[in-house]
Amino acid sequence: MAIKMNWKTLIIILSCAASVSSCKSKNKSGQSDVTGWNYNDKNMGGFQVAKEKEEKTGPGLVFIQGGTFTQGATQEDVMGDWNNIPRRITVNSFYMDRTEVANVHYREYMYWVNTVFDGDEYQAVRNAVLPDTLVWRSELAYNEPLVEYYLRHPSYNYYPVVGVTWKQANDFCAWRTDRVNEGELVKRGYINKNSLKNLSGLGQENFNTKAYLLGEYQPTPGQAAKSKKNPLKNPNGTPRTNVTFEDGILLPGYRLPTEAEWEYAALGLVNQNPMPSKKEGKRGEELLTNKQVYSWSQNVNGLRDTRRGSWQGTFLANFKRGAGDNMGVAGGLNDRAVYTAPVTSFYPNGFGLYNMSGNVNEWTADVYRPLSGVDNDDVASYRGNRYETVDMSSGKAERDSLGRIKNRYITDAESKNRRNYQKGDVINYLDGDSSIAGVSYGYGITTLISDKSRVIKGGSWNDRAYWLSPGTRRFLEEDQSSSTVGFRCAMDRVGSPEGNGHGTGINYKARRQNSRKR
Length: 518
Known about the structure:
Layout: H1 7-25, E1 61-64, E2 67-71, E3 87-91, E4 94-97, H2 103-116, H3 123-128, H4 144-149, H5 166-187, H6 209-213, H7 223-226, E5 254-255, H8 259-267, E6 328-329, E7 332-333, E8 361-367, E9 388-390, E10 407-409, H9 412-415, E11 453-457, E12 474-477, E13 485-486, E14 490-492, H10 508-517
Parallel strand pairs: 8-13
Antiparallel strand pairs: 1-4, 2-3, 4-14, 5-14, 6-7, 8-11, 9-10, 11-12
């Protein structure tokens, strides 16, 4: 039977055929815009390119969408320090722990260290991770129950860990990075699952992310790595057992948040936006409706909940209301915590973060200076850079006794010809001190501020309400600890700053498509 066909039908059929042919001719994983060569094609060089993907949110973290805000004081400087002068800056998007690191989390870290480094030669390593429980002692108070039980009793499992120095908090972040990435590789079958069963006595031979990426740590491959279904391929098309950072499987490192990041996250200003952008093609409003004092976004910048219902009138943070009043009167306790409270107590802020005001002060990454922020960069403001690189003095990267890649500090000689920095250690760059030759400020003589002084923020169970404001700041030496200081971790955000599948920049094509749908 003959099929009748007009010229319009013929054009449509030919167009469809051309489209199908075009699709078949292209490699499914993409093609280079600069060479025309196929990616992931063993017959065209074998250059491997992973599909573009959003960064996965690591365990315990929430996404903090960045933006501009005014960092610094939001209320009268009653201490007269003048160390938090308001200044507009921009914070890049990042991730942050939903809660403070709790006792049970830190004990998991201690257990791992005690198991992996169990020999006599590692006694100093095991001792180095122990929190100082004696921080609870006071000359004129009976706090021995906290000294003995706070860290280890299960009643305190989910209370914030305290007595941890800045250095210990940094080491915890490094350990957490390796455990999360190791667990992900085991889960996906790139490392043999039995490797997690035999931790005892591993010592130096434990998984370290950087050592793995540099080829200095060779784990036993899992079944998925050897399978023909393994999406990772060598240039010749055979399954690849080692994962690279370009594959998008490994996460960036956990770290302490910068002071600017911490303060921005504490304010949770996204809650004040009346029309936040939640999907591609919809533009949000650039608007702040309220000048916040504390980390919660309420109609009134007070210390009590203003919402109608059973919560109305309750305190929104764990702090000391006044001299001798740490929790209120029996039968009507105000914050219901004489010391610290569980890390998920009270109402989370706009980003979903708990206890950004009160409970415990928290370590930040920054070195403290009274005028920090005045001369800092407009974006990603931070003081404390001392640049490092992999130590290649032996001709290759090497691991230290703990299994970590050895680093060294960048020298001034290596930096002098650069345009963006001329010194390797820039902790004191534009810090407000006199530049007159011969002038020095002796730590402990004319000042208590040193290069080891680190910023702490947030206020604690033993602080008055003034210190609960995210704009306030104090400092503690990085090798000291306190019963009122804990920490939480952060992580870099790679790729687009907006999240929710949004790209970077304005995608006009997506906007037009959404307009047609409406």
